[in-house]
Specification:
Oligomer: single chain
Number of helices: 2
Order of helices and strands: EEEEEEEEHHE
Strand content: 35-45%
Length: 137
Amino acid sequence: MKKIIVSRKNEYMSGGQTFSFYVNQKKYLIDTNSSITIDTDDEIVEVYAQLQWMKTRVITLNQTENEFNIRIKPFLDNNSIKMGVLLFIISVIFMISDYDILDLIARVFLISMMAIYVYTFTIGYRSYLKLEINNVS
């Protein structure tokens, strides 16, 4: 019997939302700052997580391992969000300065940041969530 422990922390990007976690197409719900334990007798175990339309790739777990710890995480953690906000504020300050080069740097940064977000939520919807898997035997 395989034991799968799935957990998730409170992350800024998906704080109050419930994730769906699938084991062989069977749906389990996992809330913020919680974990669930799933027992399965299946030889081949396919898992993935989903939040609204964004989901991870389907991962097949090794049949020889008996226990897996899986952590669901978004592509940006809390520290990355804080750094992005700080850089956004600095960019705005650069834009209102009298120096043309600082204004250009700020505009390039803001356009790049916007492109990353638009890509992640549209074409790259499969890269929004990640599964961090650790084998425990």
